[in-house]
Fold Lipoprotein.
Amino acid sequence: MPVTDHPSGAGRSPRAEHRSRAGHQRLRLVVATACLVLTVAGCSGLGRTAVGTVTYETEQRNRVTVSNPLVTGCHSIGSPGAHTVANRTLLDMIMYLTPDCTGEQNAYIATMQSDTIAPGSGPWRSYTIVH
């Protein structure tokens, strides 16, 4: 009577055993490659955020905190703008006096730093994250 069930590999020919090991190695390689592709795709996605918070204060002393802002695009602060900013993210940021992140008058705020506008200058109206 032929043996049809080989749970421990007993009764298999060396060639069949080699094919089985090679198949498992290929499967591991495919799974590892898929994991790597998903990891890289996740890291380079458009939805990445700057881990941490950006807190700014308006002229009326209203405090606003933004958690994990996106690293892409221009972030508008809106009216009346910000006078003090604390960057508690893991990335640097650039503050702008304009609402659309344009103009040459800007301030670079490194990670875990804060800044206050210079006397006589207007409030910051937008910011970008440096990535």
In short: Residues 9-45 form one domain. Residues 40-45 have pLDDT under 50 and may be disordered. The CA atoms of residues 58 and 80 lie 7 Å apart. The longest strand covers residues 52-57.
